[in-house]
Amino acid sequence: MSTVDVLFEESWNKEAKLEYTQMESLLKGKITEHRGPQKTHNFQLFTPTVAKTSKARHAEVEISAQDATLIPATVGLIYEAQMIDDWDAAQNSFDYRNVITKNVTAAVWKKYDDKIITALAASTSGETTLPTGNTFNYAAASKMAEVLDTQDVPMGDRFGLISAPAMRQLQNDSVYINNFHFKNEVVKTGIARDVAGFDLIKTNRLGNGAAGNTERRCYFWHKDAVGMHIAQDFKIKIDWVPTRQGYLFTASMLVGTVIIDNKGVQYCDVANAN
Q: Domain limits at 194?
């Protein structure tokens, strides 16, 4: 395998990085990230303590024992590789290289999201029953916020990952619409911001609920409750393969996801109808 010209590779990398910023993960930045070259990183879950309210005159300050549980996140490989046939590219009127770049980049970031969804699905919290059956409306979002409230989960940096039917149900809720929560941004980006304290993100990558494929499991969490260890961030590699008369284009990441605090991750099942 021959060496690709450095300037050419740098130029292509810039193109791929541009695609990466335009097609980035839905969930990147919505969880706690740690970067480092090690295979396993230990996140820490600190045990809450109770502040003291009194001290006798001249007595020593009472020191609380601080305990922290180690939550290991071990990285796994995500990669996608495709060939860009030089002779095929010469016979096509579209930008062959750009299409492959988009395809590979999107595949890696979708798998990145899948890893986070898999971690969310492994949380130990029980299902929350919604106020109106398995319908996701403003009252349902408020209920999920209340569940986090009762677990003393901080108010800021709360996110929800909901199905397309759940987002449609929310947009059809007159309470949500009439109270001016609705914005066209929901249609353009698939994100409904500040709904009962959540930024709600629409996806079609959620698994089935308890009733099977008639519903989808939707997740609500605080950013600090979910950890992503990144040993190698998104990376592009380009090699010329003489025996194939083409370029081998590979995008990869080394990441591992884990639930740091199960109290900060809650879920409900939402029907695919209504």
A: 127-224+262-271
Instruction: Give per-residue pLDDT as tens, 79-118.
Output: 999 988 888 777 766 677 778 888 888 899 999 999 999 9
Distance CA 157, CA 222 (A): 6
When comparing pLDDT for 91 and 43, which is higher? 43
Question: 165 with 273: CB under 8 angstroms?
Answer: yes
- 253 and 154 housed in the same domain: no
Instruction: Give the residue among 191, 186, 117, 200 at the shortest CA–CA distance from 158.
Output: 200
- Asked if 43 and 199 count as a contact pair (C-beta separation under 8 A), the reply is no
Are both 83 and 25 inside the same structural domain? yes
DSSP 109-136: HHHHHHHHHHHHHT--PPBPPPSSTT--
Q: Terminal CA-to-CA distance of the chain, rounded, Å?
A: 56
Q: How confident is the model at residue 274 (pLDDT cuts 50, 70, 90)?
A: low
159 and 266 assigned to the same domain: yes
Q: 167 and 217 share a domain?
A: yes
Measured CA to CA, the distance from residue 20 to residue 80 in angstroms comes to: 14
**Into how many domains does the chain fold?**
2
CA 17 – CA 23 distance, rounded (Å): 10
- CATH number for position 177: 3.30.1930
Instruction: Tell me the two tokens of residue 93.
Output: 């009127």
255: closest CA among 67, 124, 73?
Answer: 73
Distance of alpha carbon 126 from alpha carbon 190, whole angstroms = 27
